[in-house]
Amino acid sequence: MDFRRIILFGSLGLVLAMIWQSWEQYQVEHAPQGMTQQGASEGTEGSSATASNITDDVPDAPQIESAGAVSQPETPVIEQESTKAGKLIQITTDMIKAQIDTQGGDLVRVELLKHPVSVDTPDQPFVLMHKDSSALNVAQSGLIGSDREYPNHNVEYSTDRFDIDLGDRDLVQAELLWTGPDGVEYKKIYTFHRDSYRIDVDFKVKNNSAQEWSGFFYGQLKQTEIEQAGSMGFLGRLPSYSGAAIYTEEDKYDKIDYAEINESPLNLSTREGWVAMLQHYFVSAWLPQDSSGYQIYSGVSRNTPAPQYRIGFKNTEPVRIAAGQQGELKGALFVGPKEHRRLTALEVPGIALTVDYGWLTPVADPLFWLLTKIHSVVNNWGWAIILLTLLVKIIFLPLSAASYKSMAKMKKLQPRLQTLKERYGDDKQKFQQEMMKLYKTEKVNPAGGCLPILVQIPVFIALYWTLLESVELRQADFMFWLNDLSLPDPYYVLPIIMGISMLAQQMLNPAPMDPLQKKIMTALPVVFTVFFLWFPAGLVLYWVVNNLLSIAQQYFITKKYQNA
After folding, report:
1. DSSP per residue, 63-116
2. CB 247 within 8 A of CB 254
3. pLDDT band for position 236 (50/70/90)?
4. Which structural domains are found in the chain, ordered by start?
């Protein structure tokens, strides 16, 4: 069997698979909106519906008589949302600038002060959460129950502070007040911390009524479909995930894309977990607090200009407060970049999996750990990538050496193989027999140059995902014109060097005997150069360094065996 042919067609298959993936994504992004928009005008006066006159869904409260029970997936539609515009409370910390709407008490805007939109606009922070008539990404929360009115995300709160600055304090709080018709007083408190993207959301309840109060906390994330950033030219967008994700004690981490939310709403129970909305480098997540059970649910609102997808949780164990007493219900948000150290510091099971390395996570996690350790020494992500590539190359040195020795021996036999091919002409069977006899005589294993490469492929793919998914490389400066390793090389220098290095490697390898295979191999450097023009510079840098190290190693081994 010709193992070089397997490697060749495997490489071509990888290229075609990525092109096909991009094509499928293009079809989804440009497909007719029949399913997702179906019913968009239901309950409205036509296509002119706006965010101010839509209806909204609030989750059902579990039955208090059997606190462990959960509601059905259908959720009641409350009456038309108030058209009264709420006032915005602005909170500024060292990490974020946030806005809370008194109408509903929703978190409606979060700007990440440490993460500009681009390196060219350092004073323009990336806006992760936002609310307008055509695009939505907000965090909603409230209380639900039965036999009384509760402060869900559609009531009008009051407050006496509209501009809150962290200053030199460790935390600040925004307080919103609402009193029910029965006299029960509710205080919704957002707590923002220094050097943190965690936001605590607490409800303090003062039961001024004559009856026991009981209720449940819920939190949900609502957004319109987010168009993924990061172009790969004619190949479409970067293959990173955008949509919902959940974590449960039973099924662990699971991604729930927009189509799944649209087709089959979630309704499942768990003792611990969380819900989130993801995009390439950022995450918004509700982290339930202080409860022994949750129901995770999802849904979509179609009577809006664009479908609004939601993922949320609600407690299934009620908090009970006696008449005349006070109590508290708690939740927490994480709204920010998927920085591994910050996600780990939350000490929430599975939350670090939102940095999605796919099925190669067991390999990618150690690689990222090693990359961060190197960066802590050199303080430059470009040099960290170079040194990581060097270390990986050293680890695989025995396998690489065996591969290059086999290739060097094969190259030395090329003249004799060519003579055999000319001697036996079109008699392929006889040629194969004589070729295998020659290999046996010279003690050359034709698979020796390919099998070591196959062993290394999972590591190389894991490193690809490590560099692609790490927000730490976003806007990371290297040197010269490379001031953002998450973007393509603007002058295409690295992709061209990569293509030249591939061509140099081919010259060191034994030439294929099959003319068609030889033509394909000759075309591969050109194909991959074009392919890499739109790859993030950090990925191309890794590939270039790996190729250059391989060329140096292969050159010395080939020279040694040619002179032997």
Report:
1. PGGGTT----S--PBPSPPP-SPPPEEEEE-SSEEEEEETBTTEEEEEEEEEEE
2. yes
3. very low
4. 32-64+86-223+240-356 (2.70.98.90), 365-562 (no CATH)
Q: What is the model's pLDDT at position 121?
A: 87
Between the alpha carbon of residue 108 and those of residues 194, 419, 501, the distances in Å are 20, 75, 49
Q: What is the mean pLDDT of residues 343-358?
A: 89
Residue 510 confidence class, pLDDT cut points 50, 70, 90: low
Confidence (pTM): 0.77
CB-hemisphere CA count at 13 Å for 153?
24
Q: 185-193 and 294-301: which strand pairing?
A: unpaired
Q: Alpha-carbon torsion 557, 560, 562, 564, what sign?
A: negative
Q: Are 311 and 256 in contact (CB under 8 A)?
A: yes
Per-residue tokens: 212: 């026991």
Among 47-56, 223-232, 272-281, which range has the highest average pLDDT?
272-281
| CA torsion through residues 323, 314, 179, 77, sign | negative
300 or 34: which carries more pLDDT confidence?
300
Q: How many C-beta atoms surround the C-beta of residue 394 within 10 A?
A: 11
Does the structure show a pLDDT above 60 at 433?
A: yes
pLDDT exceeds cutoff 80 at 396? no
From its phi and psi, is residue 230 left (phi > 0), alpha (psi between -120 and 50) or beta?
A: left
Q: Are 363 and 372 in contact (CB under 8 A)?
A: no
Strands 171-179 and 88-92: unpaired
Whole-number Å distance between alpha carbons of 6 and 14: 12
DSSP H or E segment with residue 442: helix 428-442
Give the torsion sign (CA, 509, 514, 515, 518).
negative
* CA–CA separation, 140 and 78 (whole Å): 15
Q: pLDDT at residue 333 above 90?
A: yes
Q: For residues 443 and 465, what is the distance between their CA atoms, to the nearest angstrom?
A: 39
Please report where in the chains the tokens 């099998």 appear, as a residue: 451
Could you tell me which of 392, 546, 530 has the C-alpha nearest to residue 15?
530
Vertex 270: Cα angle to 268 and 274 (nearest 5): 95
pLDDT of amino acid 362: 86
Instruction: Report helix, strand and coil shares of the chain as percent, to nearest 5.
Output: 40, 25, 35
C-alpha dihedral, 267 to 272 to 277 to 282, nearest 10°: -170
Please name the residue that has the structure tokens 């989750």: 59
Q: In whole angstroms, what is the distance from residue 298 CA to residue 275 CA? A: 10
Q: What is the pLDDT of residue 451?
A: 56
- Residue 32 binned pLDDT confidence (cut-offs 50, 70, 90): very low
Please list the alpha-helical segments (H only) found in 266-413.
340-345, 361-378, 381-395, 397-412
- The first and second tokens of residue 18, run together, are 């990525």
